[in-house]
Each structure stands twice: as C-alpha cells, then as structure tokens.
Amino acid sequence: MKLYNSLTRKREDFVPNHPEIVKMYTCGPTVYHYAHIGNLRSYIMEDILDRYLRYSGYNLKRVMNITDVGHLTSDADEGEDKMLKGAQREHKSVMEIAKFYTDAFFSDCAKLGIRTPDVVEPATNCIDDYIRIISKLMDTGYAYFAGGNVYFDTSKLERYYVFNDFSAEDLDVGVREGVEEDTNKRNKNDFVLWFTKSKFEDQALKWDSPWGVGYPGWHIECSGISMKHLGEDLDIHCGGIDNAFPHHTNEIAQSESYLGHKWCNYWMHVLHLNTKGGKMSKSKGEFLTVSLLEQKGYDPRAYRLFCLQSHYRKILVFDWENLDNAQLAYSKLIARIAALKPGDGELDQAAFDALKKRFTDALDNDLNTSLAVTALYDVLKYQTNDATKLAAIADFDSVLSLDLIARADKKREELKKQTVTAGEFTIVSESGESDAEVEAKIRARQDAKKAKNYAEADRIRDELKAAGIEVTDIPHGAKWKRI
Ligand code: AMP
Ligand code: ZN
User: Are strands 119-122 and 78-81 parallel, antiparallel or unpaired?
Assistant: First the structure.
C-alpha cells in the first residue's frame, strides 16, 4: 500500500515497524462543543485508513485522545482555555461539558459509520505520564521554567520545522488580534509543557507537579498518551492539516527529545472541508453538525459518501447542492443493491477477485476513495450473478462503511411488503428514494380519482409537475421521478 507521508513529502510504501502489529495514533476532538462536519471529514478519512489496514490483513492497534484540558483558543498557547469557555457558555462544570460532548462525538461517529479506536483516552487520565516526560526534558535541558510555566526550548533542536511543504497559510497558527504574546518564551516557537496557577487562575482542573499546581499544555497529551499505550515508536500518526503545525511539530519535538530517537514514521494529514465562504467555524455562520444535517433530512451516510467521493489530500468545499447530489446518489445506490437477488447463483470467485482488485488498486494508491467508490459501481455493472455482486459489495463496505447491505435488505423487505399488498395502491420512485410529501400528494390524487373528481386529480398531477415530479400510472399504483 502506498501512503503519502507528510514528513518526507512523498508517497511511500507502507512498511510497519513490527510485522505483528501496526500502531496508529489519532488526535481526538477537543470536547468543548459539538464536532462540525469539517472535523468529522478528518475522522471519516482516518477511519478509511483504519479499516483498510485491517482489511489488508494488518493487526492494528489504534489510540485516540480526548482533549479535555489545556487546549487554548490559539494553538500557540495563547488566548482562553477552550474547555473553560465551553463550561462558562453552558453554566456547567468542565467535566460535565467534557462528558456531554465526548458522548455527542461518538454518537456522531456511529451515525457516520466511524469505528471507535481500540483505546480512547481522555487527556486528564494521564497526568503522571506528562509529568514524567516533562521532568526528563527539564533534566536534559530541553525545557525551562519561566514566569510560572514550563516551556519546551525549540532552540535546542537541530530541526524544528519538519512539515515544511505546507504553505505559509497552512502554517498560520491561528494568530488572533487581541491575543497577547507570551513574553516568558525564549524563542517564538517555544511552547508550554506545563501551566501553573500563574496563568489562568480560574482553570477548573489542576494537579500537583514538581513545578507547582497547574495543568498540562495541549501538545504533551498526545505524546504521553501515545507512549502509554503504544510504546516508544509509532507507525502512523494522523490528524487534520491544521494539526501539522504547531501541534504535530511540537509532538515530534518533545517526543524525540525525550526518547532520544525517531518516534513516528508516517504522518497522514487530511485537508480541510471548507464552506464557500472559506474556513468552517463553530462560532461564525451556520454551525454545521451531523444533527443539523439530520434535521434537514439528510442521511449521515450520504455525507460520508460525499467525503469519499474526493481525495483526502484535496480541500473539499461543502455546499448543500453537492450534499443533495450525494444524498440522491446514496438512495439510488441502495435501490440498485436492493434490486439484486440474494440467492441468485453461487459465488463466482474469478469475478469476485477481478472486482476486488479494482477496489484494492484504488485504496492501495494513497487511499483513492473516489476510485474505490467507482469500483463499487463497477460491481453493479459487471457481468456476473447477484450472489457474487452482493458478496463483493459486502466486502468493500467493510471499508467504505456505507451500511449498504443492511439498508438494501431493509429496502427489499419494504418492497416485498408493497408487493404483497399489490391489491392496494403502491407508490414507487424510479430512483428508489422515498419522499413523504410527494407520496402524500400522489395518494391524494388517487383518492380524488376514486371519488371521480378528475379535475382535482389533474390539478394535483399538474402541481407535482410544476414541482418537477412526473407521475406515471402503473398497475395497482403509481411511479414517480424527478424531471
Ligand atoms: P479539534 O476538535 O479542534 O481538536 O479538531 C478535531 C480534528 O478536526 C483535528 O484533527 C483537526 O485537525 C480537524 N479539523 C479541524 N477543522 C477541520 C476542517 N474544516 N476540515 C477537516 N478537518 C478539520
Ligand atoms: Zn494530538
């Protein structure tokens, strides 16, 4: 499998450190608010990597942190504490906020078909691990104490900017107007390992440490949690592109200074989902969440399909029209799979292998998910029996996670019920989608016809036509399509 490695800026063959296990780490959410669908794009694409590694036969151990302390509004350790801000906004305690939004995050993930990593660790669980790492960094001269905080000294490194293929804009640390610069830092890029009460006196969560009562900086948590569960080396580390700098850069700085050797071999960064207006934001404009998509009638898996249709290393622009297209494509896909007959023939191994090769070729090529989706459509077109097609679809869906088989089974059951009651009036759409409003109008038209009120029946048909819906009568029912 070839994977683009942000560290070397090359597509490389993926070779794990230890043949018996692949160790993967993912930066988890900061649980001060709901995740927006941009955050979730990153988690969907990382989930594809997770699932594809397992599908390819690797024994994967994946760890994710939950940031419930230490992440300030500016990634450069300035501004307010995000968790504290969330707690103040909702008049709750930091721990209540953390619990609520952690649950909300995993509920969104479940709706999007994202697997929960093998280990999920809140940052507040591992304070001793951070203290151990920071103590050694102090002893070896990589860290210093100033103004009540412990900082990492980036001037002690041979090389600090490790991901320097990113544009200046990518490397912008979210500098905000009105955020005061920290004058304790010896060098511009130095970052906080441990805050004490000298900064943010009202911080809710504090722990004792050799440097005073305080709390960890944001970056140290990922090094500490990764080493706690995965040891001193890591195969793949992932996150959204904004994490590359300064977060991942700082993770590498402190981890390798602590360990005295290379830490992680492959870095995977997912490019952002933007709105037409630019950056996706939790505070400006419409706050796009999974719940909002559902309220507007979209299936979360249609959003997953929307993400899979483009490559993770390209910026993806969100607009409702594109999501409409993905929703329609998703419903049609389910309808086409539902039209396959499960008992039809025996598995044709040669056909299955040929189809599978298209799928694995796509994903082996730096996770080309849009070609993997094309490989899924190829199954439907292929000259083979339905049993083979269904087997291939189920196999691919263990990676794509679009819930295709279960949804198609459900659809098939619904269609069966409709056929059983064929004496009654059946409404079907050509695309396989269902639309309660359209169906209600078609039923009203049928009632009018039954009552011999043909003028009303024609009026309803014209009204549907004006709304872009064409209705055709079929035996015992009506068929409709969008025109
Ligand atoms: P946070 O909850 O802010 O710590 O971010 C969670 C994850 O979402 C991180 O991996 C970020 O890099 C990623 N992320 C943030 N904004 C976006 C976006 N607009 N598109 C894709 N990923 C994002
Ligand atoms: Zn991290």
Answer: unpaired
Choosing from 42, 171, 222, 270 the residue with most ligand 1 atoms within 8 A of its CB, the one to mutate for a pocket test is 42
Residue 37 lies in a domain: yes
Domain match, 252 and 107 both: yes
Distance 475 CA to ligand 1 centre (A): 52
Residues 401 and 438 in one domain: no
Residue nearest to atom 16 of ligand 1 (CA): 39
Q: What is the pLDDT of residues 309-364, one digit of tens each?
A: 999 999 999 999 999 999 999 999 999 999 999 989 999 999 999 999 999 999 99
More confident residue, 421 or 171: 421
Domain check: are 351 and 470 in the same one?
no
What residues make up the domain containing 113? 2-270
Q: Do 263 and 255 form a contact (C-beta atoms < 8 A)?
A: yes
Q: Starting from the CA of residue 82, give the closest ligand.
A: 1
Based on the fold, state whether residues 73 and 150 are members of the same structural domain: yes
Residue 276 lies in a domain: no
Single-letter code of the amino acid located at 87:
A
294 occurs within a structural domain = no
Does the pLDDT value for residue 145 go beyond 90?
A: yes
Q: What is the pLDDT of residue 276?
A: 87
Q: Report which bound ligand comes closest to the CA of 307.
A: 1
Question: Which of 204-208, 214-218, 350-354 comes out lowest in average pLDDT?
Answer: 204-208
pLDDT at res. 426: 79
Instruction: Name the domain count of the chain.
Output: 3
According to DSSP, the residues that pair with 472 across neighbouring strands are 479
Q: Which of 102, 30, 292, 368 is nearest to 300 (CA)?
A: 292
Residues with CB under 6 A from ligand 1: 27, 29-30, 38-39, 41-42, 67, 239-240, 242-243, 270, 272-273, 280
Mean pLDDT is lowest, of 15-24, 165-174, 208-217, 451-460, for 165-174
Higher pLDDT, 93 or 50: 50
Q: 24, 29, 47, 76: which is closest to 267 by C-alpha?
A: 24
Which of 35-39, 145-149, 193-197, 398-402 bottoms out in mean pLDDT, i.e. has the lowest?
193-197
Distances (CA, A) of 18 to 12, 15, 63, 357: 17, 9, 17, 26
Do 160 and 242 belong to one domain? yes
**Beta carbons within 10 angstroms of residue 5's beta carbon:** 18
For tokens 């500016």, the residue is: 74
What CATH number is attached to the domain comprising 35? 3.40.50.620
Q: Are residues 35 and 61 in the same domain?
A: yes
Q: Ligand 2 mean position to 449 CA, how many Å?
A: 64
Q: Which of 270, 292, 317 is the last residue of a domain?
A: 270
> How many Å lie between the centroid of ligand 2 and the Cα of residue 223?
8
